[in-house]
Inverse folding.
């Protein structure tokens, strides 16, 4: 609760190389008339991570001999990154989820491995949970050891300062004094921690289940969603998949006791990619599908592979339909609306977005009935990964992710370096860009989690390799990869 390939013609697009460079470069003004007019002043010098530079003023009118003096340059851009911190540990660390706590502190969940885990053939990935100050300084960290693989997908922080983390693991996972073990399949988990990092308890969720998201209702119950095959039981009786994989929604108390659970899907593959709960308890979720599953509003069209759906917190169907996009992420927006972000092209209700078959970072807003409000697309060769997003109270939306081959924002082509860069964009309540940036260097950078502070700043978490340059400083890798947090002003 909060919260085919397109051809790019470069001849007319100013090339902006990332690593913290500005999206827009300032220009000089026009020369004056008559004689050779003076050149306009240059815009302010770009600052890494800052906003657009100002344009230079117009040149003065030319006389019989020479033109007038050029106008003054534009203002220097403001650095929007207020601070940036790496985890700076001799561990491979990746942030996968984060949330702002009741005191403004930052709660982070992710995966971690020692260097030995990468090179002794075992490749163990464990869960870490960390509490950080509002400026990203570490307070404490707790590791939940795994014998194989574990990946947290959501974290909730309650008013009393306790936190609940949910995700997926394989092999064994130790939560407090209990070790949960499964065969070579994925299982879900929930872990509860207090404000000092002590583990209060946890549970294993079903068989062959992958968790896609975790949130809470206004009265403090947990909503957890994902997909599974075979059978899963949250305490209310077994749910059995109809085919290759089906969706699940479960409502649990904060202590993990069953309240309600349902299965959704058909005999084909149905997967959930994200989940969010609005302030009034309305549930939004999204994913991918094959076939024609019926979630309660009629069979979905098999012309598309993505979907968005909404249920009440009692699991009554509100709306569901397919979308011409994949890697779909949802975020509850103000006034009962929902923002849907993904990679696609088509008509979402307001006209064509992108060329048919092209790849675009696409933003769609739907109202409380699922009707189109607005939609926009930003061309990209490949967005590279499932994005994450959070909608702000003012109706704007922040999006983070990874871009591997460039993206066009407001007419400017942003080029990632080498293996792909961490992307962040801030878009207004009409899905028009306010700020967009790629960060990275020769390695691979990922933006995976985002949350908003009470002041409207965005705190972003992810991972990077080698170094990552921001206007608030250069982060140097210690682990391989290293986790990061940074804050961007609104």
């Amino acid at each position: 609760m909060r919260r085919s390939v397109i051809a790019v013609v470069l001849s007319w697009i100013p090339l902006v190389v990332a690593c913290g460079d500005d999206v827009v470069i300032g220009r000089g003004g026009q020369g004056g008339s008559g004689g050779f007019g003076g050149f306009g002043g240059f815009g302010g010098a770009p600052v890494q991570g800052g906003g657009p530079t100002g344009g230079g003023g117009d040149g003065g009118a030319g006389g019989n001999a020479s033109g007038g003096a050029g106008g003054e340059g534009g203002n220097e851009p403001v650095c929007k990154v207020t601070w940036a911190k790496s985890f700076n540990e001799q561990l491979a660390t990746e942030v996968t989820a984060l949330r702002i706590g009741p005191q403004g502190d930052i709660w982070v969940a992710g995966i971690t491995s020692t260097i030995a885990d990468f090179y002794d053939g075992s490749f163990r990935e464990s869960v870490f949970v960390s509490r950080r100050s509002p400026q990203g300084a570490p307070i404490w960290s707790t590791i939940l050891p795994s014998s194989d693989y574990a990946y947290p997908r959501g974290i909730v922080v309650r008013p009393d300062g306790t936190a609940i983390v949910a995700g997926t693991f394989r092999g064994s996972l130790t939560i407090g004094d209990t070790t949960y073990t499964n065969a070579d399949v994925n299982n879900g988990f929930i872990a509860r921690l207090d404000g000092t990092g002590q583990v209060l308890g946890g549970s294993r969720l079903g068989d062959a289940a992958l968790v896609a998201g975790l949130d809470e209702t206004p009265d403090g119950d947990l909503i957890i969603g994902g997909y599974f095959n075979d059978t899963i039981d949250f305490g209310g009786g077994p749910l059995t998949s109809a085919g290759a994989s089906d969706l699940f929604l479960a409502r649990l108390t904060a202590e993990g006791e069953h309240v309600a659970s349902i299965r959704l899907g058909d005999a084909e593959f149905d997967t959930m990619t994200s989940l969010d709960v609005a302030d009034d308890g309305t549930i939004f979720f999204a994913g991918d599908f094959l076939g024609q599953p019926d979630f309660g509003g009629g069979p979905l069209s098999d012309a598309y592979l993505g979907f968005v759906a909404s249920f009440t917190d009692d699991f009554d169907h509100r709306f569901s339909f397919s979308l011409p996009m994949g890697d779909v992420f949802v975020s509850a927006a103000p006034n009962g609306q929902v923002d849907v972000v993904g990679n696609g092209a088509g008509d979402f209700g307001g006209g064509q977005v992108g060329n048919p078959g092209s790849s675009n970072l696409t933003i769609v807003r739907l109202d409380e009935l699922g009707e189109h409000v607005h939609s926009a697309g930003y061309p990209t060769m490949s967005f590279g990964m499932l994005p994450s997003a959070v909608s702000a109270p003012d109706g704007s939306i922040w999006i983070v992710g990874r871009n591997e081959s460039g993206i066009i924002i407001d007419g400017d082509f942003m080029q990632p370096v080498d293996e792909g860069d961490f992307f962040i964009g801030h878009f207004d309540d009409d899905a028009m860009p306010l700020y967009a940036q790629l960060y990275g260097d020769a390695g691979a950078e990922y933006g995976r989690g985002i949350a908003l502070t009470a002041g409207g700043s965005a705190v972003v978490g992810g991972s990077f390799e080698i170094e990552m340059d921001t206007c608030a400083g250069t982060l140097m890798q210690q682990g391989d990869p290293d986790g990061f947090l940074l804050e961007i002003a609104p």
Notes: The longest strand covers residues 91-100.
